[in-house]
Each structure stands twice: as structure tokens, then as C-alpha cells.
Write a structure and sequence with these properties.
Blueprint lengths: L2 H14 L1 H38 L4 E5 L10 H5 L6 H7 L5 E17 L2 E11 L3 H4 L4 E4 L4 H6 L3 E4 L1 H7 L9 E4 L2 E9 L4 E2 L2 E2 L3 E5 H7 L5 H6 L2 E6 L5 H15 L11 E3 L1 H44 L1 H9 L4 H37 L8 H27 L3 H6 L2
Parallel strand pairs: 3-10, 5-7
Antiparallel strand pairs: 1-11, 1-12, 2-3, 2-11, 4-7, 5-10, 6-7, 8-9
Length: 411
């Protein structure tokens, strides 16, 4: 039989057993739909997180008292480590692979008020003039903190868009005074919106000169108390980030008098560190979701095999007649295998469409964003075809091996 004849025969069989064909296709539809919707959401989430990581600056290095990560942190050991200092930051500016450096101290304030309006859980950071570039926080209006502000310990601040929306919804915040602790700060700039990072807003921030921060908030508490001052470093290029890390490590070990046999008592964090944290957080969940999708496809494949076995049994006389008039075992095998592949292919097509639709709906009504690279669509079709072939081989082979005389006598 020619290939087109095989397809026509398969379609004719589907038309004569519509309900059976529908139930067979349904299992594949559910499996492929699950795979595509999960992969679309996972790819969208990965793209979103990668964009957020890139927003931190592709050649930014964060030096702290400990390395960030998902593992257990010995709080007692870290708290006993020597704090980073402004002198450490100044020494880093002399390194060949380093372009800019900013010391950073943080303090979270429960709420900031302005004329009856309030913004909650605001992070106040003490930084220098280079942090606009090191931290990748460009200004939308006004200006950033200057070196003069830093040297004069000026009471000025730059605020994020979250505070603009909540405290100054209908007015220009530039030139307004904002109360932070026991001091009042003149707003000199507004930052461009950066969105959120791993669920945390990056716009709910206030930057003040580092020297002013030390006067206004002399005692860090909470998370800031554990990690103390951090130093944000920008390497001269993305290609030199590894050189910068090595030079920073050598500098701090030398300044701290660490011999070769002693471990680092500080942490150096890059974008790769953050990516590893994200992978650790999502790795188990991703495996579980893929397992659920694989089980769905397995169930769909078993459904195809069962329905095809029933079809072989019901069409035993037809198979015997075909063999009696000259059809070979290979023709019978290809006929039933073609039916299985066509059924799974139709299920794959419908499943891909429904999967993309479900991912799009979830993306529209939730913060999760869907992304469907072309390979996910091919993967959906590939899965469905593979399931059709794998679970269709046994019924097709069983049909091909039927004895024509016994098949014609079958009741």
C-alpha cells in the first residue's frame, strides 16, 4: 500500500469509530497540553528571572561577609567575621580589572510618611556616586548622589518609583523633604523603574550618601547586622569579571592576613551565584512538573495501545481478508502503526494549541509570564509522535502476525 492509501484507510477507520478515536486522542491531548503549558510557563519564568539578574549589571560583583546561597549559614561564625570597611572599598578601586566601587549599607524602615500618605517596608541604602552605574540604577529625573554629597555628608536622597507612586501620586517629588529616622532629606532625584527581583520590589528604595547613612543609622540591625557593609564592584568588562574576582580575593586575603591554608572569611558573589540560588529553588519543582507531564503522556500512550488492541480484535476478519487478497504482514503493520501515529499526531496538534492557550491565560491573570520557543512546539509534536510509535508497535505487530486462515474463521 502507498503511504496516501494508508492515511486514507486510517481516516476511514476513525470515521467509522468516532467515539473510540476521540477517547484515544483525548489521552494524548491531555499529556501534550500538560507538557506544553508547563514548559511555556517554566521558560517564561526563566526568561523573566534572567532579565532581572541582567538588570543587576552583567559585570557586577557583590562582596559581603558571606557567600549567598541556599545552604546552611553558620550565623555565629559569620557574625564573628571581620566587617568590610570603606578602606577595603578604596583599595579595590586600584585593582587593574576593577572600574568602579561603591560601599553599601542597608536599613529597612517600616514605613515612610508624607502628608498622610505612606509607603511600607522601604529599604534605605547608603551608597556613593558610583552606585548609579555599579548597581545599575539610572535616574529618570533629577540627579543621583554626587561626590560632593558624599564628602559633605549632605542630607539628600534619591527615591524609587514605588515611593513616587505612593507618596507623590500627583506631584513632582523633586525638591520635597522626606523624614527618615530623626533627619529630613531633600529629594534630588527619581530612579527609573526596575520592577521586582525574585518577588522583591527593586523600586521600594531610597539612596542617601554613604557618609550620611553612617551618621543617621549608626547601628545596623537584622539581616544588615549579620552581613554588615557590602561592597559592590563593577569590573572593566564582562570578560574581565573572573580576573576582578581573583584580584578582589587576593586583596582581601592579604589585607586580612590569611595564610594559604586558611579559608576565605568573606564572600564574593556574582550573577552566577544568583543563578545557582534560583536553580536550587526551582530545580525540585521543575522535576516534579516534568514528572507529572511524563505520567500524563504515559497514560495517553497506554490509552492508545489499549484502543488499538481492541481495534485489532474487532478487525480480525478484515485483517484476514486483506492478507488473503495479497496484503503482506508489513502492509498490516504499517496500516495499524500509521493509525496510531495519526491519532497521536492529531492529539499532539490539539494539545499544543490548548497548552499554549492555557499558558497564555495563566500569564494574563497572574504575575507568571509564558514564553514558548519554537523548540517547545516541536517537542510537543515529537512527544506525541514518539508515544504513537512506541505504544502502537505492539498492537500493529500483533495484527501483522495474525494467521489469515484463523483470522477469517474468527467470530
Amino acid at each position: 500500500m502507498k503511504f496516501l492509501d494508508l492515511i486514507r484507510t486510517a481516516l476511514a477507520g476513525f470515521r467509522s469509530h468516532k467515539m473510540r478515536a476521540f477517547l484515544t486522542v483525548l489521552g494524548i491531548v491531555i499529556g501534550v497540553m500538560t507538557v506544553i503549558s508547563i514548559l511555556s510557563l517554566v521558560q517564561g519564568m526563566n526568561a523573566s528571572v534572567e532579565k532581572q539578574i541582567q538588570s543587576l549589571g552583567s559585570n557586577t560583583i557583590m562582596v559581603a561577609k558571606a557567600t549567598f546561597g541556599m545552604g546552611h549559614i553558620d550565623v555565629d561564625e559569620v557574625s564573628k567575621r571581620k566587617d568590610l570597611t570603606v578602606q577595603d572599598a578604596e583599595a579595590m578601586t586600584q585593582l587593574p580589572a576593577v572600574k568602579m566601587v561603591s560601599p553599601v549599607k542597608s536599613r529597612q524602615i517600616g514605613s515612610v510618611n508624607y502628608r498622610g500618605r505612606k509607603a511600607t517596608q522601604v529599604e534605605v541604602d547608603g551608597v556613593n556616586a558610583d552606585y548609579e552605574f555599579v548597581g545599575n540604577y539610572p535616574v529618570e529625573s533629577g540627579r543621583f548622589i554626587t561626590r560632593d554629597d558624599y564628602l559633605r555628608r549632605a542630607s539628600v536622597c534619591v527615591i524609587g518609583s514605588y515611593l513616587v507612586d505612593n507618596l507623590f501620586p500627583n506631584e513632582d517629588p523633586i525638591g520635597k523633604l522626606l523624614a527618615l529616622g530623626n533627619s529630613r532629606f531633600l529629594i534630588v532625584g527619581v530612579l527609573q523603574s526596575k520592577g521586582s527581583f525574585l518577588g522583591q520590589s527593586m523600586d521600594n528604595v531610597i539612596f542617601i550618601p554613604f557618609t550620611t547613612f553612617e551618621l543617621s543609622f549608626p547601628k545596623a540591625i537584622g539581616f544588615g547586622g549579620l552581613f554588615g557593609m557590602q561592597i559592590q564592584v563593577m569590573s572593566r568588562s564582562t570578560e574581565q569579571i573572573d580576573d576582578a574576582v581573583d584580584q578582589i580575593r587576593e586583596l582581601l586575603r592579604r589585607r586580612r592576613g590569611l595564610t594559604y591554608d586558611k579559608p576565605d572569611n568573606f564572600g564574593i558573589n556574582t550573577q552566577d551565584t544568583i543563578r545557582d540560588i534560583y536553580k536550587n529553588i526551582t530545580g525540585v519543582a521543575f522535576i516534579v512538573m516534568i514528572a507529572v507531564a511524563a505520567i500524563s503522556l504515559l497514560v495517553g500512550g497506554i490509552g492508545i495501545m489499549n484502543i488499538m488492541l481492541v481495534s485489532v480484535t474487532e478487525r480480525t476478519k478484515e485483517i484476514g481478508l486483506r492478507k488473503a487478497i495479497g496484503a503482506s504482514s508489513q502492509n498490516i503493520l504499517l496500516q495499524f502503526l500509521t493509525e496510531a501515529v495519526i491519532l497521536s499526531g492529531i492529539g499532539g496538534l490539539i494539545g499544543v494549541g490548548l497548552g499554549l492557550g492555557i499558558a497564555g491565560i495563566i500569564s494574563a491573570v497572574s504575575p507568571l509570564k509564558a514564553a514558548a520557543p519554537i523548540w517547545t512546539i516541536f517537542l510537543g509534536f515529537g512527544f506525541s509522535a514518539a508515544v504513537g510509535i512506541f505504544f502502537g508497535i505492539y498492537p500493529a505487530n500483533r495484527a501483522a502476525r495474525l494467521n489469515p486462515i484463523q483470522a477469517l474463521r474468527y467470530e
